[in-house]
């Protein structure tokens, strides 16, 4: 392939990225005014980020000899993405406090000289970790490589060696060599063969290409992909893992980072080991537009790993900035990771993913504020006093005594919840809702991020919309400030209540609705935070009274992230 087209494909990834991070980028602030973004106030206290410069995808998370390892796409020379990217590396005993180590992978060999892109870890028998990652070779072809620890007795796994027999997998006939990347963690079938998947696109259809190997060095492509969908565009960072058992059957989660929209979606199903294919639970698995999003906010390129220490599946996800490249240059950093979440299968009917922050996060909770039995009549705004508003964890349960005033649901809304969040908003009157939290809110409310629910009466039961509206999050107009939203799959009439947990950490608001059925992460940069006068409120602007049965909130202390 001609170098120019290779270059343009690399550039197209970057352009997508810039659109995601800085679509509203207009102009940097006038030179005579200080850029508010240089303030360290926007650095996070307990969300992982390197001490400086650029970070994007989580890579190869694993648990090995008593330590959690976290690798990430990192530009060690500046705060913007570069194709010629490396792997940062940190370790932790508890997923909260992290120690930075030297770079684990840097472009150094013909098979990755133009960049060490995303990949995953597999723990081989005998407790031997291996990383499989995408390398950009001398002509920027995307090839898959292995790397092994140099010294298995070093629990820090500081040094990695790249065998000379790399690459182990190269693009095959018929695909674009610049659209073939991000190998998954491998798994072993009953026949003893290893399997992994790599994302690509063919004629507009996203595919998870399946490979098999008997020795982890020679890989043979299966005739059929593990799964594909029509018209979805490129699949990045594919993850295929068992999520849990339902009625004696193991349910698998297939997660895909959809490059066209830069959103992470998932679908659930079973794994037909005989045919080596994923079988979706229902027809929606074949239509990517029906797949739920892992997170309805700013999350991309996420990845899970199995934590053998606590027998749980843990998820990591990159949360990009919503400021401009100029802001990132001014700040000297860009990109954070969402809090690691435990992934489980919904125990009520086995039909969906449940996400919850790892329990270790609670070790950072300090002063506790409790409020009980508070009636929120229409127009109520109740402050949660005593919180350090920039570092907090708020858990609240709303009781819904009446559904009489619920607005009527229009079935056309089902396809575009963010639009519904935008149009209905947090502040205008509704029936059952909007109710929720205003966080990082200024005295005058001119800046706030609204996380809220609205309940609608539909033909078959009720629909619950969850939104995180960033439009008033900052007075700076040039930021990307969407209203994000998704539906919460609960039987609200039967439950009569709904929970919300919101993690506030300087420039991130990460919210878990309905016990973790719907999650929304927002990146916000309130200017008034710099003056320290912001608040957290519970509110209700619906006609129906809503009750806070219980609210618990904690100030959060700073995690040690070196
Ligand atoms: N980021 C990596 C790629 C991956 C993309 C490059 C997803 O391997 O496809 O930094 O964010």
Summarize the SSE layout with pairings:
Layout: H1 3-22, E1 53-64, E2 67-75, E3 86-92, E4 99-100, E5 115-124, E6 128-136, E7 142-149, E8 160-161, E9 180-181, E10 187-188, E11 194-202, E12 205-213, E13 220-221, E14 227-229, E15 235-246, E16 249-258, E17 263-272, E18 277-280, E19 300-307, E20 312-319, H2 325-331, E21 333-334, E22 336-337, E23 341-345, E24 353-357, E25 365-376, E26 380-383, E27 391-399, E28 407-408, H3 417-424, E29 432-442, E30 449-458, E31 461-469, E32 483-488, H4 492-495, E33 497-505, E34 508-513, E35 518-523, E36 534-540, E37 546-556
The protein binds 2,5-dideoxy-2,5-imino-D-mannitol (DQQ).
Mean pLDDT: 93
Query: What's the CATH H-level superfamily name of the largest domain?
Result: Glycosyl hydrolase domain, family 43
Distance between the termini: 42 Å
Assembly context of the chains: single chain
Number of DSSP E strands: 37
CATH-defined topology of the largest domain: Tachylectin-2, Chain A
- The figure for the number of domains is 2
- Rg, Å, rounded: 23 Å
Number of helices: 4
Determine and state the CATH class of the largest domain. Mainly Beta
User: Main sheet?
Assistant: 7 strands, mixed
The helix/strand class is: mainly beta
The best one-word shape is: globular
Annotated CATH architecture of the largest domain = 5 Propeller
């Amino acid at each position: 392939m001609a170098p120019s087209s290779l270059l343009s494909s690399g550039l197209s990834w970057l352009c997508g990225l810039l659109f995601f991070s800085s679509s509203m980028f207009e102009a940097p602030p006038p030179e005579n005014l200080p850029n508010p973004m240089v303030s360290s106030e926007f650095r996070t206290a307990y969300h992982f980020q390197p001490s400086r410069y650029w970070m994007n995808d989580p890579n190869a998370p694993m648990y090995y000899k008593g330590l959690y390892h976290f690798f990430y796409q990192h530009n060690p020379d500046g705060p913007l993405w570069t194709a010629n990217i490396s792997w940062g590396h940190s370790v932790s005993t508890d997923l909260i406090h992290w120690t930075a180590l030297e770079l684990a992978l840097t472009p150094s060999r013909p098979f990755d000289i133009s960049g060490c892109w995303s990949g995953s870890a597999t723990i081989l028998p005998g407790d031997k970790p291996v990383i499989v990652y995408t390398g950009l070779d001398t002509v920027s072809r995307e090839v898959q490589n292995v790397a092994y620890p140099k010294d298995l007795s070093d629990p820090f796994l500081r040094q990695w060696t790249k065998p000379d027999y790399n690459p182990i997998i190269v693009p095959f006939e018929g695909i674009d060599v610049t659209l073939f990347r991000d190998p998954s963690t491998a798994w072993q079938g009953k026949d003893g063969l290893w399997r992994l998947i790599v994302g690509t696109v063919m004629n507009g259809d996203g595919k998870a290409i399946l490979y098999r190997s008997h020795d982890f060095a020679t890989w043979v492509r299966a005739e059929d992909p593990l799964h594909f969908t029509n018209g979805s565009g490129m699949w990045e960072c594919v993850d295929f893992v068992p999520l849990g058992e339902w009625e004696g059957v193991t349910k698998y989660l297939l997660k895909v980072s959809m490059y066209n929209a830069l959103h992470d979606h998932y679908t659930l199903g079973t794994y037909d080991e005989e045919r080596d294919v994923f079988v979706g639970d229902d027809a929606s698995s074949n239509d990517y537009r029906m797949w739920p999003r892992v997170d309805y906010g700013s999350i991309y390129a996420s990845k899970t790993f199995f934590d053998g220490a606590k027998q749980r599946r843990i998820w990591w996800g990159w949360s990009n900035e919503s400021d401009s490249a100029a802001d990132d240059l001014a700040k000297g950093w860009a990109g954070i990771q969402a809090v690691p979440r435990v992934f489980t299968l919904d125990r009520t009917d086995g039909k969906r993913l449940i996400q919850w922050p790892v329990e270790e996060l609670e070790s950072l909770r300090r002063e506790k504020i409790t409020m009980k039995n508070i009636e929120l009549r229409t127009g109520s705004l109740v402050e949660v006093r005593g919180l350090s508003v920039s570092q907090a964890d708020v858990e609240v349960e709303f009781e819904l005594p009446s559904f009489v005033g619920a607005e009527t649901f229009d079935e056309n809304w089902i396809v575009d919840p963010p639009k519904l969040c935008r149009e209905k908003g947090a502040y205008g009157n509704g029936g059952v809702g909007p109710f929720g939290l205003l966080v990082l809110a200024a005295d005058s409310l001119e800046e706030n991020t609204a996380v809220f629910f609205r309940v609608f009466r539909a033909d078959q039961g009720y629909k619950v919309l969850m939104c995180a509206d960033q439009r008033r999050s900052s007075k700076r107009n040039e930021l990307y400030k969407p209203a994000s939203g998704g539906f919460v799959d609960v039987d609200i009439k039967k439950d009569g209540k709904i929970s919300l947990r919101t993690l506030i950490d300087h420039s991130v608001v990460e919210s878990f609705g309905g016990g973790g059925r719907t999650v929304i992460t927002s990146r916000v940069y309130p200017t008034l935070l710099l003056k320290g006068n912001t608040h957290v409120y519970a509110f209700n602007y619906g006609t129906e009274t809503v009750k806070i049965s219980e609210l618990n909130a904690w100030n959060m202390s700073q995690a040690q992230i070196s």
